[in-house]
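Pipeline run #58 for the internal structure catalog. This entry was flagged by the ingest filter as a single-chain record with no existing model, so it goes straight to prediction. Upstream metadata was stripped on purpose; only the residue string is passed forward. Reviewer on rotation: M.T. Logging verbosity set to normal.
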Amino acid sequence: ARIVVQQRLGRALRERRADIPRALGTAVTRGLLPALRRSFPTTDTTVLPQVLWFGNVGSVEPRFGIVNLADIAADLEAAAREVRFRLLVVTGDQQAYLKHIRPLALETAFARWDRLTIFEHLRQSDVAILPNSRDEFSICKSANRATLALSQGVPVVATRIPSLEPFAGSVLFDDFRGGILTYLRDRELSAEHVSRAIELIEREYAPAVVAERWLGILGAIADES
């Protein structure tokens, strides 16, 4: 674009000022527009539902993080054959995504973890999935990702672990293929489960509730000392 502007517009300025508008138009059509098309290629306008996994990239031993997502690859591929969706993986290591997830037989995308942009990714998602290996390290994980997703209106399909027991009835457990398909097909059920979960979060996990519990624990320790 710069070369076109220099050649066309420079000649017009030197020789024929009346040609300046045409020279500008030529610069745009021959230089800028092709560059913009390369920068913003045309894509399929079909908006796919989005299934989201987010979390620490993890490790193989102990087995947690993105390898847990790879462990349910067959369920993800089977679900995608019935209802086409995009799997968005939000974590801190793109190479791990390329190794474990990109080869799967479904549409996937990577986004780098950020404590602020995760809220936008959640708003754009229809289902969040939280697989867990249930090994000695992972079985004691907290419900933080589930509460985050549900608090933003996203239904959750998860491996059943102790911290998620309070969400029985508002989270679908241990069937990732069936859970994803259920939530993608039945938006009323999704909304019902999210609404039920938000009531639980406000009652049991709200900042004021957590603060009161900490005060109670610290007060008990102070009384004993």
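catalog note: The mean pLDDT is 86.
catalog note: The beta strands are 50-54, 58-59, 64-65, 86-91, 107-112, 127-130, 156-158, 172-173.
status: ready for reviewer M.T.
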